[in-house]
Amino acid sequence: xxxxxxxxxxxxxxxxxxxxxxxxxxxxxxxxxxxxxxxxxxxxxxxxxxxxxxxxxxxxxxxxxxxxxxxxxxxxxxxxxxxxxxxxxxxxxxxxxxxxxxxxxxxxxxxxxxxxxxxxxxxxxxxxxxxxxxxxxxxxxxxxxxxxxxxxxxxxxxxxxxxxxxxxxxxxxxxxxxxxxxxxxxxxxxxxxxxxxxxxxxxxxxxxxxxxxxxxxxxxxxxxxxxxxxxxxxxxxxxxxxxxxxxxxxxxxxxxxxxxxxxxxxxxxxxxxxxxxxxxxxxxxxxxxxxxxxxxxxxxxxxxxxxxxxxxxxxxxxxxxxxxxxxxxxxxxxxxxxxxxxxxxxxxxxxxxxxxxxxxxxxxxxxxxxxxxxxxxxxxxxxxxxxxxxxxxxxxxxxxxxxxxxxxxxxxxxxxxxxxxxxxxxxxxxxxxxxxxxxxxxxxxxxxxxxxxxxxxxxxxxxxxxxxxxxxxxxxxxxxxxxxxxxxxxxxxxxxxxxxxxxxxxxxxxxxxxxxxxxxxxxxxxxxxxxxxxxxxxxxxxxxxxxxxxxxxxxxxxxxxxxxxxxxxxxxxxxxxxxxxxxxxxxxxxxxxxxxxxxxxxxxxxxx
Length: 608
Known about the structure:
Structural class: alpha+beta
Strand order of the largest sheet: 1-3-2-4-5
Oligomer: single chain
Number of helices: 24
Low-confidence stretches: none
Number of domains: 4
């Protein structure tokens, strides 16, 4: 049996390389083999820090007898959902026809053409009350394939056809009345323990950022809900008090018994939230976690840290985090998934730049700069297209997705306004321009198109609007385009941003808890456009200090030297044209007040 996963870029795939299962990586070869043998496919999707993925690997995929059965009757494919998020999204959508409460590992059974006819998540090695064993599932699937193949293929074809014709409602409207949305989110609040809903309980960081956005626009209820939730999380076991980062979620309603994996995206978004809230203590802990634990030697950030670790020879989930600082020093920390994902690094760049700017932490901004420079050198092609992932200098064959373009562009724009370096904004503009020019049903599309393996089989989703733990690619692109409008005054960016959020609007208003990213952009688009540029060659000047702490939905803030202002203006960023004197320039829709030089006067105007 060939070991096709041994040299895979993904640590998740490499962790399965020694399984007796004859795994294929994602690609045409697996489908060709299933066609040749005329057997069903098992497409098993997970990620490196997924606890139940590890459990199923040990219980089932390492079992020689079970592997022999799989190899004889199926073509098996292992997919890292972080490396191939579009593959994951496509099969999650199809799996929804067969199971509820989906998660990972996601195990999907398909025809040789890749069409789904059954799916589920974790199955145990032995039957448990109400749950069949994995072998029983395999027997039932194989029986259906051999005895009722015509029905199976018909069902799979109907699911594929339904997904191919499924479209979010066109001609939607931009959400503008946020009071009922905030009121609905209030009904989800756990009044006793904080957060939203019961167990399991997740941070819901995009929703918290939306609430802070509305709070900055004067919504006291939204701000209070964000403050209560973030306060409860900071005081809970979801936060590691020693290393400062937040765990993925809590298995109990009171935030206890965390699921101990730590994700780059959660901590990046929560750093933004705590910085905006002014919780310096928590923000410092999260930033320290990102820079000390998650940062790789290259300057970029790992995608996640494992939930399991080996403590005194025993492999346990969370055992490392039960130790104090001194005891941890004597143990090997949980492994990092060292995959560098462009989009998630974009979130970290944006968070460190925003928080470093707001709280005057130059070291955080330098951390954002190092990651951005790595991605520019290693993930940005000469034609302004992006790569999805790399690890230790090796590049993934997976194509970049819309989230990569939007999140990286947003991170670069935030870094540009934090550092005063126009080159970051120029690169971000090229990324957005390329996505706006792509052929798509929405204002933004992936340059080069969808995953070619999915596309060749008609399985690619035309648009993936789903959000949750972090913004969708469409929301991320809309956010970047809106920020570009604030810097350039080019109406096309605002129109594209509006078009994307109108596309998502009906979904966001129907399920606000699941569309915090889209609602955050909607808020920014609704509020009056405001821009603050402080031009000073003394970056510790009093006016600069006042500007750092100003947040307003629909606004942008930059602090630049006179030379940097000239560079921005020369690069086509209209906001900086004519900023020749050292002063604070406060503008609305690019119409500016008289320049202000007194910090106290600026403070009064901003509060008005």
